[in-house]
Amino acid sequence: MRNNVVRIVVGVLLLCMVTAIARSDPPPDSQDIQTTIKALKTRIKDQEHRLAELESQQDQQHLERARREAIREVLKEMNLNADGHSSTPKWLDNLKFSGDLRLRYQGECFSGRNRKTRNRARFRLRFGFKKTWLDKQMEVGFRLASGSNNNPTSTNQTFDGSFSEKNVWIDLAYAKYSPKWLKGFTIIGGKMKKPMVHTDLVWDSDVNPEGVWGQYKHKMGGFEPFAGAGYFVVEEHGGDHDAILVAYQAGFNWKLAKDIKWTCAATFYDYDHIDNNYIDANGNNINADGDLAAGQFHMFNLTNKVGFKAFGLPMSTYFDWVHNCGDSDRAENYDSQSNGYAIGLKVGKNKKKGDWSAGYKYAYIEANCVPGEFNDSDFGGANRKGHTWGAKYNLTDSLTIGGKVLWTESVTGDNQNERDTTVQADLVWKF
Q1: ∠ CA(233), CA(274), CA(386), 5° rounding?
Q2: What SS3 state is found at 37?
Q3: Strand-strand pairing, 118-133 and 157-158
Q4: Which end of the chain has fewer CB within 10 Å, C or N?
Q5: Quick one: 66 and 154 in the same domain?
Q6: In this structure, is residue 15 part of a structural domain?
Q7: How far apart are CA 374 and CA 212, in angstroms?
Q8: Cα angle vertex 336, ends 334, 338, to 5°?
């Protein structure tokens, strides 16, 4: 269209020029004609430039109308008003949903005992919500999880029961407050993830204690000391004495260099009346009354973790040691069975597609050093020693495959030196 207009304008100007020349008296010389043509060309260029500006303005107006229409469509899809505010209920703001699904094959082989080899297919499903208020100072969350029973150390559900429906349990239900006016302080209450620094020497990854925990951290450059304390209910009996756990912890996070971080924590776990209030001894010695023979569990735990890089790979290692100061068991083979330790190394991290990791652990856990119902159930609880190897690979950012092999045996007792072998193969989807 612009070219047609330009042609018309040029034609009109040429016609005017020819008419002016024809009517001139006397006729102009060649120099005058050249000057006139030059002026005409300048005017033509000016007209082209002006027409281009007009078309550009029209294009901008068209683009602006298209942009406004696109924004309206996006807001409509996002369920937002024209002013950008959400038309959904306010309580949905800052609400996050997450979960994971794990499919597992688990094979178990036992030597020297009247226990048959097992081959099991299992799954774990966990999902929940987390909500924050007051610029993330307040957080409330809950999570539901699968599980065949109320075992605190497992959310696995074995394929079993003639295709029966499977259970769902309350796995987390907590509230947490981290005030800005007291930076570094956090208090959390309810059924929570373990808030203290730990390893599976003392706590299985699935255990979520119930009670209240408060902690304070203070950064001083690359050095961050912390201290915390908690009160947790193990069993509630009404008129009788409840079984409780009081825990105290102090330690530090220390960034020694750009890629080196050291975490050290000393923890004292003081159990009261747990000797006759346990779900599963799981390796602890039992006396004639059916109580835990250790009597008391007053445990001192020293945990060291170091993260670093080597050969361009992220790595981490730990050493964990625990001693039960309250052990009073003097039965044959169980006297002074009150110490345990574990050492582990991990190479790599699993965050995105193509990532991989591999790890190794050795643990030596005497019969009365920790409550067997709460530490690593895959390893076998208390009164176990042995090795664990594992590896994991990211098929996508959220889908991983992995495997683990455990060789364990009893530290003491009738089944001493009889090896158990466990093999696990996992497919995990996080969402």
Answers
A1: 105
A2: helix
A3: antiparallel
A4: N
A5: no
A6: yes
A7: 18
A8: 100
Q: What is the CATH number of the domain that holds 107?
A: 2.40.160.10
What does the pLDDT average to over 284-307?
96
Residues 6 or more apart in contact with residue 44 via CB below 8 angstroms: 6, 9, 10, 13
Domain residue limits at 30: 2-77
The answer to whether 155 touches 166, Cβ cutoff 8 Å, is no
Does residue 16 register a pLDDT over 90? no
Q: What is the 3-state secondary structure (H, E, C) of 320-364?
A: EEEEECCECCCCCCCCCCCEEEEEEEEEECCCCCCCEEEEEEEEE
Query: Helices 30-77 and 2-23 sit at what angle, rounded to 10 degrees?
Result: 160
Torsion of CA 393, 396, 400, 402, to 10 degrees: -30
Give the number of other CB atoms < 10 A from CB of residue 12. Answer: 10
**Token match 């929940």: residue?**
128
Bridge partners (DSSP) listed for residue 361: 344, 388
User: Is the alpha carbon torsion for 273, 274, 279, 284 positive or negative?
Assistant: negative
Number of domains in the chain: 2
Question: Are 38 and 132 within one domain?
Answer: no
Whether 392 and 364 have beta carbons less than 8 Å apart is answered as: no
Distance set, CA 305 to CA 260, 315, 321, 391 (Å): 11, 11, 12, 20
Mean per-residue pLDDT for 341-360? 98
Q: Return the sign of the alpha-carbon dihedral for residues 207, 360, 352, 156.
A: negative
Cα distances (Å, whole numbers) of residue 348 to 70, 313, 425: 44, 6, 19
d(CA 367, CA 339): 8
One domain for residues 220 and 317: yes
Q: Are 303 and 199 in contact (CB under 8 A)?
A: yes
Summarize pLDDT for 379-417 with one digit per residue, the tens.
Answer: 999 999 999 999 999 999 999 999 999 999 999 998 887
Query: Which of 77, 105, 137 lies at the terminal end of a domain, its last residue?
Result: 77
Same domain, 240 and 157: yes
Rounded distance, CA 414 to CA 226, Å? Answer: 43
Is residue 180 pLDDT above 80, yes or no?
yes
Distance from C-alpha of 412 to C-alpha of 417, rounded to nearest angstrom: 8
| Listed residues 77, 105, 133: the one ending a domain | 77
- Domain membership of residue 85 (yes or no) is no
**One domain, residues 104 and 15:** no
